[in-house]
Specification:
The protein is α/β, with parallel strands linked by helices. The chain is 26% helix and 28% strand. Strand 18, helix 8 and strand 19 form a beta-alpha-beta unit. The longest helix is centred in the middle third of the chain and has 18 residues.
Length: 453
């Protein structure tokens, strides 16, 4: 009988120690160690760590990739995030908060792939086949090529993959499966790490893509060791927006595509549906003239998204003025306020300033600087601006309006949405467009444009 020892593993990074530590020396996390039993004189998972019997190197240029290496999910928004479809033999991790719709999203992908005549296996360690069928009935899934099972042993799952060789396998979730040769509870660091490795080798060996669903911790990261995200090929987060009931599928790691792409979905009674034009929903019903408003076009990967930035200023007679921001980087906001005070003569030292991005969307780029400045200036002067005007540009500390990337895509989206005018940097190069272009080189020129609106 093999001897066993007690070890302590870091829940964040998987670092192993023979004694409990208050602070992990590898990742610096506090109070992250948990106790586990470990078998001595046995290498966990060594029996599956081989792709083929032989080992041979060769020139990269002679490697055959094949023409059809991707499988379409049947959902254009999901294909966009995957980089054009799911790559055969890849291992993808889909994470999200409880109730975000991870399982529903995975079932929708499974159903669409199965509709094309491909065999798909959906394996759940959290639900019985009857419970999966209840959810499938609600969402309209029921393709004869979609097979379901309830299993938690990763060895049996890998055997099923090698025996059936389906076109796609979904495992829900990685925290519930376990490896028989590891003497630890399901969901522990060693179980998650070895189970993921076992599924990864099964996917690479058979060429069957596998999607594993993972839970997230209270700080928003995937539960389990950080090594889990390094092992897989694709890491996706399915996030819930607080407003408009949007669901956003975001890639944070993708070995086969861009990590800047997002897919926008909406949750309804019949499941998840994709939103082809989120800009139209976000700007629906907006007034033609508003004070304290600036329409901007931001880029999420290669997708332009039109948003409304709202600003409100209110006089404060005593105490320090308040600065409240939602959806925009706070430090960037303070820089723009300083530029407005210095270059446009705004007296904001006794004004509370509130900024909000309508729709609950967060902006992470600088192409919205000009729109934010226009919203604050309009709100302070109480001068209504046309909501048929879009502002695109970055502000420098000297008040210069600087060009941003993907200008043609941003203007094309504004044109598609029916906008009449675009305020852009003077040095921006643009193609043909029906929108009237107002080119400015400094923030001082913004005053004339807002007054004439």
């Amino acid at each position: 009988m093999l001897k066993k020892a007690t070890v302590f593993n870091c829940n964040n990074c998987g670092y192993e120690s023979l004694k409990w530590l208050g602070k992990c020396p590898a990742c610096g996390g506090f109070n992250s160690f948990s106790e586990e039993a470990k078998e001595l004189k046995k290498k966990g998972g060594g029996e599956y760590r081989g792709f083929d019997a032989g080992f041979k190197t060769g020139p990269l240029k002679d490697v055959e990739t094949g023409r059809k290496q991707r499988i379409s999910t049947g959902i254009s928004e999901a294909d966009r995030v995957f980089g054009g479809g799911i790559v055969k033999g890849s291992l993808a991790l889909l994470g999200g908060e409880p109730g975000a719709g991870k399982s529903t999203m995975a079932l929708a992908i499974s159903e669409n792939v199965a509709k094309s005549g491909r065999k798909v296996i959906y394996i759940s360690g959290e639900e019985s086949p009857g419970q999966i069928k209840m959810r499938a009935d609600r969402t309209g899934a029921g393709s004869p090529s979609l097979f379901v099972a309830s299993e938690t042993c990763v060895e049996r799952i890998a055997e099923e993959i090698e025996r059936e060789k389906p076109s796609l396998v979904v495992v829900d979730s990685i925290q519930t499966v376990y490896k028989d040769s590891i003497d630890a509870l399901a969901g522990s660091v060693s179980q998650i790490k070895e189970s993921c490795a076992h599924l990864m080798y099964a996917a690479k060996k058979t060429g069957v893509p596998v999607i594993i669903i993972g839970h997230v911790t209270k700080d928003g990261s995937i539960a389990g060791p950080k090594m889990l995200e390094h092992m897989v090929d694709v890491v996706l987060y399915f996030e819930s927006e607080q407003i408009n009931n949007f669901k956003v599928l975001r890639a944070v790691k993708n070995r086969f595509g861009s990590t800047n792409e997002i897919g926008v979905f909406e949750m309804g009674a019949s499941g998840i549906t994709e939103v082809a034009s989120p800009s139209k929903i976000l700007l629906d019903g907006i007034k033609e003239q508003k004070a304290g408003s600036g329409i901007v076009t931001v880029m999420e990967g290669t997708r332009p998204l039109m948003l409304e930035i709202q600003a409100l200023t209110a006089r404060r007679n005593f105490g320090n003025p308040q600065r409240t921001v939602t959806g925009v980087d706070y430090n960037r906001f303070l820089i723009i306020l300083a530029v407005l005070e210095k270059k446009m003569g705004l007296s904001l030292e006794n004004q509370d300033v509130f900024v909000n991005v309508a729709g609950g969307i967060r902006i992470f780029e600088t192409g919205s600087d000009l729109g934010l400045a226009a919203a604050v200036y309009s709100g302070f002067r109480n001068s209504p601006v046309s909501t048929k005007t879009v502002y695109i540009g970055e502000l420098g500390l000297d008040g210069e309006v600087r060009p941003v990337h993907f200008m043609d895509l941003r203007i094309a989206e504004a044109e598609r949405m029916g906008f009449e005018r675009a305020v852009i940097p003077a040095r921006s190069k643009t193609g043909e467009t029906r929108i009237k272009l107002e080119r400015i080189s400094s923030i001082e020129e913004l005053k004339k444009i807002i007054i004439t609106d």
